[in-house]
Amino acid sequence: MNLNERFNQVLAEIGEAAMAAGRPADSVNLIAVSKTHPVSLVDELAQLGQVHFAENRIAELTEKQAAARATGLQWHLIGQLQTNKVKLLNAGTILHSLDRLSLAEKLQQQFAADNIRCLIQVNCSGEPNKSGVAPADFDALAEAIAKKPAIRVLGLMTMAEHSDDERVVRRAFADLRELSERLAAQKIFPGYENWLSMGMSGDFRYAIAEGATHVRIGTAIFGHR
Ligand SMILES: *Cc1c(COP(=O)(O)O)cnc(C)c1O
C-alpha cells in the first residue's frame, strides 16, 4: 500500500471503531505522527487533507515546522520536553506531555504573554519506564498547574502498556477517561475541552472504544521507522 492507501485505511478504521462504540466518526481526530520520516511525507499527507501532525522531539518538530511547505497545519509535541528546551517551543504548538511542576513553571515563564495549550500526561499503566504523572500525584499537579494562567489545559494524554491482554490496555484508557471526567467536574481549568489523547497504531481501536478524542498514529500511516 502507498501513503494514500494507508492513510485512507486508517481513517476508515477510525470511523469503524467510532461507529462500533456508538460515537460519531468525527468525534475522533487523527494526529499523524511523522517522527523520523521526511518532511516531504508531511507535505504529501497534508495534500490529502491531513491537518494534525505530531513529533516526539522538539528539535525535529521545529525543523519540520520550518521546512513544511503545507500551510495551516496544527503541530503537536508528544514526547518528553526538558525544561531547558521550552524556549524552542512555539506558542501555536499543542504540548501533550506536561507531566511535572518544573515544566509547568518554565512554560508559565516562557508563555506569560501568549498562552500555551497543553495536555497533562498521565502514566496510567504504571510502568516505571513510562513518562507521565502517576495517578496518585495527579490532583496535586493539576491544582498547581491551575495556578499558572499561561497554561491552557485542554485534556489528558496517556500511553497504554504494550500488552496482548485487551483488558490491561483498555483499563489504562478507561482510567484516563475517568480522571478527565473528574477533572472536568472540578472546573479548575477554564476552557477545559475533555480531550483524551490516547491510542497509537497498535491499540487505537481500544482507545476509541474507551472515549479517545485524539489518536496519535505513526506506523500505520507512514510505515515502519
Ligand atoms: C511514536 C509515538 C506514537 C505513534 O506510535 P505508532 O505505534 O507508530 O503509531 C504515539 N504516541 C507517542 C507518544 C509516540 O512517541
From TrEMBL:
Superkingdom, natural source: Bacteria
InterPro entries: Ala_racemase_N, PLP-binding_barrel, PyrdxlP_homeostasis
Chain positions found as N6-(pyridoxal phosphate)lysine: K35
One function term, GO molecular function aspect: pyridoxal phosphate binding
Keywords recorded for this protein, A-Z: Pyridoxal phosphate
Necessary cofactors: pyridoxal 5'-phosphate
Residues annotated as domain Alanine racemase N-terminal: 27-224
UniProt-listed Pfam families: Ala_racemase_N (PF01168)
UniProt similarity note: Belongs to the pyridoxal phosphate-binding protein YggS/PROSC family.
Function text: Pyridoxal 5'-phosphate (PLP)-binding protein, which is involved in PLP homeostasis.
Protein name: Pyridoxal phosphate homeostasis protein
Organism (species): Turneriella parva (strain ATCC BAA-1111 / DSM 21527 / NCTC 11395 / H) (Leptospira parva)
